[in-house]
Amino acid sequence: MITHLKKISLGNWMLIGMVLGVIFGFFLNFYVSDTFIKDIILINNVFYIGGTGFIKLMKMLVVPLVFFSIIVGVASISDIKKIGTIGGRTLIIYLITTAIAVTIAILIASTIKPGEGLNLASVTVANVTNNITMSDTILNMIPENPISSLANGDMLPVIIFGVIIGIILAKLKEETKLVNRMFVEGNRIMMEMTHLVMKFAPIGIFCLMAKTFAGLGLEGVIPLGKYVGCVLLGLVIQAFVIYPSLMVIFTRLNPIKFFRRFISVILFAFSSSTSNATIPLNLEKLSEMGVSRDVSSFTIPLGATINMDGTSIMQGCAVMFAAQAYGIDLGTSALLTVIFTAVMASIGTAGVPSVGLITLNMVFGSVGLPTDAIGIIMGIDHLLDMFRTAVNITGDAICTIIVSFKNKSMDVDVFNGKKKPPKEFKNLLS
Ligand code: ASP
């Protein structure tokens, strides 16, 4: 029995925590009338401590995780100047596709309105950032006092500060080898801590779901279902409308041919929920499609680190879901801040399972939304993580094809199946 339980993956435990939490919440809502047991002991103490405690643990990770990951990411692309046009083009395409992704998510979620009917309005939402102008947003990004930005969790200045440190480390190379190593190891520690915290996720999710559904009853299920629908719709549009259109516009290559050959990479990303682990397979498939390794060996690892279009779709939908649930009308400048922060969060999201959920705190924080709503969507996040990771790595591959084509380092005949890939494309990873 115990060995069977040990075989269940963390993602499935999270799902089990969610389902049990919903069932237990319903049970309390419909069958328990004793206020002392229901409200005082369970809802306001046991579930409150379990759920809010877990959210606090997640928040503990955000600042150091993003800070280290940005520094390490930027410092490692030191030869961006050398790569010149490839680096510039890749960066621009990555950032633009992510901005498109989050915009699509916001549009879908403002049309379908998944959070309506959830009425979480009892929470104080006094500090939602609606009145901040665009110039304030830009000025607020400058890390006037980086230590206080780190302490207050102001993510944009923290990111800018991290990027500057990364660039300097890349420039000074040997001179700052030790400090660079310290950040690399710091990053490693934060990844390990994330694994540790995520082990508590099933219990945290159980408590959050039980607390929510004990108060909400059945009307809580429909918004959650709508939220999943919004994210999936956004992912489908990004993968099957935006990417193929970009491919046709910039390369005139046939996207169907791409998807037919790329399906195994998609399935791997789907089942593993990690862009990082998909890097080798992605590189191999692109080589088989005639993409030069000169380009892909730079763009694919970079994409797995900074280009998370699927993740930003989830984050865009989650922000709208929470805003609607709290009855907050996000104005244009707040939405622009969300788009901008989600693009930044995509850079700060490591390509491993569930990190998108942690950087979501940062997107919520950018407009002052209460992060409690993250608890509600956390239970179904494992399922969405599988789908969004598949989109994340598809985006990396499409951008790589575009850059490689524009750079004249792609063999179109190989892509079209008229020619076999040259020998050096085979077993590249062995
Ligand atoms: N699992 C995602 C990836 O590896 C990241 C996330 O959205 O949590 O691409």
Question: What's a concise summary of this model?
Answer:
The protein is mostly helical and 430 residues long. The chain contains 20 helices and no strands.
Largest sheet: none
Which distinct ligands sit in these coordinates? aspartic acid
Strand content: under 5%
- How far is the N terminus from the C terminus? 40 Å
Query: What name does CATH use for the topology?
Result: Proton glutamate symport protein
Class derived from helix and strand content: mainly alpha
Quote the average pLDDT: 84
Count of alpha/pi helices: 20
CATH architecture: Orthogonal Bundle
Low-confidence stretches: 123-130, 424-430
Estimated helix fraction: over 70%
Shape: globular
Q: For the CA atoms, what is the radius of gyration?
A: 22 Å
Written as H for each helix and E for each strand, in order along the chain, the element string is: HHHHHHHHHHHHHHHHHHHH
Query: What is the domain total for the residues?
Result: 1
Give an overview of the whole structure.
Helix 5 runs antiparallel to helix 19. By secondary structure, this protein is mainly α. It is built from 20 helices and no strands. The longest helix has 42 residues. The protein has one domain: Proton glutamate symport protein, CATH 1.10.3860. The protein is 77% helix and 0% strand. Bound molecules: aspartic acid.
